[in-house]
Each structure stands twice: as C-alpha cells, then as structure tokens.
C-alpha cells in the first residue's frame, strides 16, 4: 500500500511539473493529433488541453508552416533522433503573442523547439514531443544589437545632410566598379556635377537655405537616376554618380535630363523660393586608365570645362578611349 501511495505521489509530482514548467510541452501522434498540451501551451494559446485532446495540430493552428513541421516530425520519427529548430530559422512557429513586459516591443514570442521521438511500451516510435522554449529576451537583444549595428553601418557610409553615400563609401564602390570594368571589359561612365554659384546662395540667404538647396538637388538625383546607378555626395555642393553598363553618350543623355529637371526645380526655403542650376562632367571608363583616380580626374576636368564655358551645361571628357569588346 505504501509503495502504491509513493507511486501515486510521484505521478502527481510529475504531472504538476509538466503543467508548471516554463517551457511548452506538446506530444503529437504520427497523425499530428495532440496528445499532450501542458500549462505553458494553455497559458499562451488560450486553449485548454481538454479542448485540444486528439485534434489535429494543423486544424487548431492553420498558420503553422505545415510542410516544415511535417519534415521535422517525420525526421525525428523515422531516424529516431532529436531534431531542432531555432528562432533564426523560424521566429515563432506557434503564433503566441509576446506577453513579457521587458521585451514587449516584439509582437510575437520567439521560440526554439526541440523535436524528440518517443518510444511506446511495444518499442514502436510513434509519438514525438515538442519542447517549446520562449527565447524572446535573447532574440530581442540580438535583433536590437543587429539593428543598432546596421544603423551605425549606414551612418558610417551615408552623408548626414543628403542621405546619399558619403565620399569615402562612394569612392570605395568606384574602385570596385573600376576593377570590374577592367576585368570583364564592360563599360561604365561617371557623372560629376556641381551646383552653380552656390557660394552666393549661402552668402545671400545663409547656410540653412544652402542646405535646403543641397538636399533638394540630392533628392532630384535620387529620383531621376536608375536603380543600378550609384550616387554620392563628393563634398560641399558637388555630387558624383557611377553609371554601370552605360557609355558616354548614355551618360550625356541622363545628365542632360538631370540638368533640365534641376534648372526648373523650385526649392521652398525659409527665405522663399530659390532656384539653381548645375554643371556636369561626363567621362567613360578607359582601357588607358591605370586606376579609378584617373577616371575621377577625367570627369573632374570635364566638369570644370562645363563651368569655364558658362555653367548650366554638360561637358564630355576628351578622347575617352573606351574599353574594346
């Protein structure tokens, strides 16, 4: 009698532990019917074990990725070995709301899951236990750090005033593009543009108005260029653009569209409406160039030719010697 009483106590303790442990426990049969649904799962799903007993997991949770879960369970059953899923692979297989006050910024609970095969008294492996861990705290901390690092990375590469690439980041991409052009014999063209008479704008209306003009010009550059083009702020009121797979004629056409758009643009500032024009230089990559610095030198000379000739115009680099195909 004493032995039976002890076994009853042990069974009660085990059941109490299963219901109060701070991890989810789900036992599924080979047909994905729910056989065990502990207190953790009840609390976070709002569904009682009595209500779910014997029902298909996919019927109860139609949003669970069925193909993925079937592969995980069938692998555990067929190979009689544990398999795992991390939140990086599947952030929240069970669509439980995040109820943790500290990490309440995330809408759903992040979960790691262990799939363990269960052997019956006959020796058959016909059930699997899912152990569901709430890893929202660690996942949120990791995601917060990644977002912060991404912001720092973006800030380190972006110009604070315009949002375009800063000079260092842009020139690094230019060096890579030059090597690609030289290695594969492809074509590419540079645009360099400068806001005409920018110093008088600053001197007359102040630096805030000057900043407004720079932002407006950079926005027009972003709007008018193609998705593959790479724009940057080179310094002050000067901008640069890499035009991949574009010859000098195509660069001239794009540059002229940009020049016309900016010449008719009205910039609303605290001092009223301000208008401006730009001068542009265009240079195609050449087989005679030793490095990207020579390419920059060519487009810089073309820009100054446009400025010397009266501004608000485009000048092409002389004798581009395009890469032959």
From TrEMBL:
Domain GGDEF: 186-319
CDD domains for the chain: GGDEF (cd01949)
Top-level EC class as recorded in UniProt: transferase
GO cellular component: plasma membrane
Enzyme Commission number(s) from the entry: 2.7.7.65
Domain of life from the UniProt record: Bacteria
Catalytic activity: 2 GTP = 3',3'-c-di-GMP + 2 diphosphate
Any one biological process term the GO annotation gives: negative regulation of bacterial-type flagellum-dependent cell motility
Cofactor names: Mg(2+)
InterPro entries: Diguanylate_Cyclase, GGDEF_dom, Nucleotide_cyclase, PAS, PAS-like_dom_sf, PAS_4, Rev_trsase/Diguanyl_cyclase
GO molecular function: diguanylate cyclase activity
Protein name: diguanylate cyclase
